[in-house]
Every structure is written in structure tokens, then in C-alpha cells.
Amino acid sequence: MNAQTAGAFSATLRRDLLIALRRRGDMLNPITFFLIVAALFPLGIGPIPQNLAMIAPGVVWVVALLASLLSTDMMFRGDYDDGSLEQLVRSPASLYLTALAKVLVHWLVTGLPLSLIAPLVGELLYLPTSAMAALVLSLLPGTLFLSMVGGIGAALTVGLRKGGILLSLLILPLYVPVLVFGTAAVDAAAAELAFHVPMLVLSALAILSTTLAPLAIAASLRIALDH
Amino acid sequence: MICREDNAGDVVLEARSLHCERDERLLFEALDFSLHRGGVLKVEGPNGCGKTTLLRFLAGLSERCDGQLYWQGEPASSRRWEMAYDSLYLGHDAGVKLALTATENLAWCCALWQRPPRMAMDDALAAVGLQGYEDVPAQSLSAGQRRRIALARLYLSAACLWILDEPFTAIDKQGVINLEARILEHAQGGGAVVITTHHALNLETGLRTIRLGQLGTVYA
Question: Nearest to residue B149, comparing CAs of B84, B197, B98?
């Protein structure tokens, strides 16, 4: 990587983080959604600790997945609407790296905080203490995968006025492996078993998506702009 | 049908037999032009005649035109990076982020190009009449002022080719005069400009016009 592309990568990363900070309301949406929906489960199912503890891994993971999906549509939408996506796509900087920067910012403002506050939700649902570490550790690479794959869907649908439903249809099936291995890791930890196998799969998925998704995103953005 | 300019110079951009069809409607065909250093090419025509489509094609944002495009004598498809590096495109949407200040907006554009700017950012903003607004978020500026943030790139950028799609939108009279002067200065400094506008351009030299329209392409 030469200095040129590195500069464009860090400039895009800083710019998008700055925009996220200036728009705190948008940034807090997924986190609020995560907390509110998770808090509804004890009310709907009843406050019996055994019942809640049994479904807790699945509930936390499903709600985190939906919270991440909620903000995925906005990943490129703002830039598309105001024309800065045109500048990004036609700049000499590598679109692979600038797209990667944009998706990383999405993860930094949704996936990372979701992973960090997940123990709070776990506590609310009587998740055994032994599973808390596994919950955070599985959500960290898991949500990175969600952002990366969600980025492909967001880039494909950014040119459509009402891409929201299509986006969900496109990417929810791709989220399934992460959901399966994520809950498997937390379930194993809750039963005080080793959970390194699902963790390895999750990490592999995160690495694979981080390296390959920007390629697909860059290609999709070019197509989306050619309207 | 190739239009050639009398004063021979380096050809920046050359198009041969461009052809564009959209929604089963022919926008233009057999369009040839060459743009030399110092040249300003104005693309005219009624709404919906394909001006923006042509400019987006020239800017590398669209593949919807057929035909050959040459960048400084070489096929543009093999010179994509050089062309992106040495050209500047301003579209209908200015590419200004409302949450960011004028300086932050420009800094990002400069970082994408990684090219030493022609002047300091504050001077460029002063040149477009935004002195004192450097650190104001764009959302508290007027439509014309937001547009001026994007236009400040015309002072910052060292790019040779400018592709400007309706740059005068929302700009006041004095702003248009300043912008015309800047375009002229750029052309005289060896740059080249492709522009669409419904304004009558007040440039003494180097201006050529392509007129696109339903009845075929006319050269003036």
C-alpha cells in the first residue's frame, strides 16, 4: 500500500467517524433498538430465570443482528444522495480501501458498541456469568461479518429508492451462518464447555468477509452509480 | 465528422463516434470531438437530451455510451487512473456533507486526490466568498453557499480537465462572473473544460459548443 491510498483510507475513516459523531441520534438508533427489544423479552415470556437463560444466547444474537441490519441501509445512502459517492468512486484512490474504511466505520459505531453492551442485555436475560465472555468475544467478529456482508447489500441497493426490504431479503440468508456459530459459542460457554471451535469459525468468517467484501462493494457501487 | 481547433495543442480528450441510447431512445450518435489544452467545450441542448449522461461518461462514472474515448492520445480504458487523477468532476449534487464544515469537506476531497493543492484551503474559500464560514457546518449555510464549497475545489485542484455539470446552479450574479473568470484562467493556464450550462458563457477565446438535441447532433 503506498502513501496515497493509505491517506485516502484514513481520511475517509476519520471523515465518516466525524459524521457519525455529529449525528449522534442516528448512531444511537441501533443501540437503543437493541436494548429496548431485548428488554421486551422478559415481559413477553415471563420473568422465570430458567426460561430466559435458555433462550438468552439466541435472543441476544438475533436482536444484535437485527440492530446491525437496521443501520446497514444507511451505509452508503447519505453519500449517494449528496453526490459525495460520485467523488469517492471516481477519485484515483483505491475504492477497495475507501469502501473498507466506510464499512469499518459502520462496525465501529454499531457492531463494536453492540458487542460491548451485550453483557448488560445478557444480565437482563439471566445469561449465566460463564457465558458473558463468549457473548462479547463471539459478537465482535460476528458483527464485523454482519457489517461487511451488509455493506455488499447496501451497495447493491443504494440506487433504489426503496431498497430496504430488498436489502433484508438479500443479506439475511447470508447472516445465518454467523447466527448459528455465534449462538453455538454462547450456548457452549453457558454449559461451561469449550467454545473455541465456533469462535474459530466466526473469526475465519470475519477475516474472509473483511478481505473479500470490499471487492464486491466497490463493484456494486460502480454499478449503482451508472444509472 | 471531426471538429478540430485551429490552434494545435496537446489533445487532452478525444471522443470518436460516441453513441448513447437510453430507454430505447437515441440521445446522440456519431458524436466526435477533441478537446485541446486551453479549450472550453460547452455542451448545449434542451432538458433530457443527454448532456449529463455524456458528462458522466466522460467522468468515468457511466458506461452507457458506446464509442472510443482517448485520454491524451491513449485509449481512456487503459488510462483510467491517470484520467481520474488529472480531472475534476462537479455534478448536479455537489458532494458536500451537511454535517461537516467547509474546511472538512474540502480536506476530504483533497485527501482522496492526494495531490498538493494550488493554494491554501482558506484562500480557496475566500475566493468563492466563504471567508468567515470556514468552520460553519454546511447545514447552516444557504444552498448557494453549499454549492460554493464544492466550487472552491476549482481553486484548489491542480487537475488539467474539468468536467462541470451546471456549475452555476444557485450561484448569484457576481459568483457567476468570478467563476467565468476562473474558468478562463484555467483554460489560459493550459487546462481544458467541458461544461454544461443554460447560461450564456462570457468567454472571449477558446469556447466551442456542441449542441445535442432530438434532431441529431449539431456542431457550432
Answer: B98
